[in-house]
Amino acid sequence: MIKENSIWHGIGLGIFLSIVVSTLLGWAGLGNDPLSSFILYLLCYIPVGLLVAHLNPYHPYTLAAISGVILTVLNQIVTIFYFSPGILAYPFILRSGILFGIIACLIGAAISTNLWRLAIKVKG
């Protein structure tokens, strides 16, 4: 099943997961920890890569990277304008955040495509 708008499905999933995971991390008291950013990337961006690659298996890595860029930019915008406006003085943090988002989505896409190929081999 190929979805033409798989990027938007992935972005919706990523926004939902980031709100839920951020809320849970805030309740746990891990709001501004570097560990919370790592947990957020693992729990939000890898499932986005999985979903996007599963919905469109012909271009899984390209679409996962695009959705990773869009989600990370949205995350950076919220971080800059809402949580910590002073972070603009540290462009390395912003660039590394985009890089980590792309890598996490590509890891999810790689997991999905390998599972997809394994399922085709087992099925056929």
UniProtKB/TrEMBL annotation:
Keywords: Membrane, Transmembrane, Transmembrane helix
TM ranges: 7-29, 35-55, 62-83, 89-111
Source species of the chain: Lentibacillus kapialis
Protein name per its UniProtKB record: Uncharacterized protein
